[in-house]
Amino acid sequence: MKMPRLSRRQRMFVQCAPFNEERIRDRAMRAAVFRVHKTDEFANQREFDRAVAALVQTVPIPEGVTAWLSKGIYVAAPKRTWKEALQNPAVLAIGIAVSVIAAIFVMKLIERMNEFPGGTTARRLLTVASSVHSLMLDPVGIIFL
Amino acid sequence: MLGDAGKAQEIFQAIMHDAALRAAEGELPNDRLSIFRDARYRCLGASEAGLQAEAIELEEHEIDSSAPVQIAKLEPAQLAVWISAAPDPQRTALALFYLDEFDHEELLALSELKTAELANLIGNGRQEFQAWLNATFPREQAFEEQA
User: Smallest Cα–Cα separation from B61: which of B142, B139, B141?
Assistant: First the structure.
């Protein structure tokens, strides 16, 4: 297959694209590689690169090197920033749940504050008053008089 | 980078020694690439002190489909010597690229190059290496052994 027409940027990406697919993390580079992956020229380039890398892998590693590497860790563990922690789905879910609970609590509190404190007693008195006949109140009126 | 296993080991041990000292003092670097960056600078420093490869214009050949067969005939030391003889930053670009350890962004950060420069150096490096392979293992010989 012949090489398709590529932009200057795509040609650059194809030239320096890692031969190991796993190492291509750039989306534009992946797209450029996808456009040429069936061409003979690119296949030759890939084969060439893989052959060189295979040769590099055969370089014997001296014993001293493995001994040094086994002694410990020489790079600090990456520190988690607040931003990264907040992007964690578990933290995000907990945050949303807590804010919903807080919102319900505040709503209930406001509702309570708007309520008349003796509301229940007043309602009971009104019910009693509405059920009382005027005749029943007559003796009381006489006493007052 | 150096084409000399002894020198490379000395530099590696010096880097690990420094890293161990830093670890003991609780000053570990956060960046995974810092050790590779340190190694690169030390290698460049060491190669500047030794014999310098003569700057010559190398021939460039198109990459051949028989290149893997030619490369398979090489000893790792021959490849190391070829790469170490390349001028920097091409030497750095080729060494890091074929190590198969880094993605594109990491390669740019370590080599301190831009994408266009890196692409140019690697592309030219391939063609120069192919020309050298063709000179070392002429075509007839390569095809005979492949058959």
Answer: B139
What whole-number distance in Å separates Cα of residue B111 and Cα of residue B103?
Answer: 12
Q: Which of A15, A26, A55 is nearest residue B123 as measured by Cβ atoms?
A: A15
At A88-116, the pLDDT tens digits run 889 899 999 999 999 999 999 998 888 77
Residue reference for tokens 């956060």 = B30
- Note whether ipTM > 0.95 here: no
Q: Which of B28, B34, B71 sits opposite A52 (nearest CB)?
A: B71
Looking at the domain assignment, is residue A140 inside a domain? no
* CA distances in angstroms from A73 to A1, A61, A139, B113, listed in the order given: 48, 19, 98, 28
Query: What is the domain extent for residue B80?
Result: 57-147
Q: Is residue A67 part of a domain?
A: no
Pairwise CA distance, residues A112 & B93, whole Å = 71
Q: Are residues B68 and B47 in the same domain?
A: no
Residue B86 touches chain A, beta carbons under 8 Å: no
Query: Domain total for chain B?
Result: 2
- Looking at the structure, tell me whether residues B89 and B131 fall in a common domain: yes
Structural domain including A21 reads 8-62
Number of domains in chain A: 2
Q: A66-89: per-residue pLDDT in tens?
A: 776 666 666 666 667 788 888 888
**Would an 8 Å CB–CB cutoff place B143 in contact with chain A?**
no
DSSP state of B52: P
B130: nearest CA in chain A?
A48
CA torsion angle A124 A129 A133 A139 (round to 10): 110
B30 touches chain A (CB under 8 A): yes
The pTM of the full predicted model, rounded to 2 decimals, is 0.70
Is position A90 within any domain?
A: yes
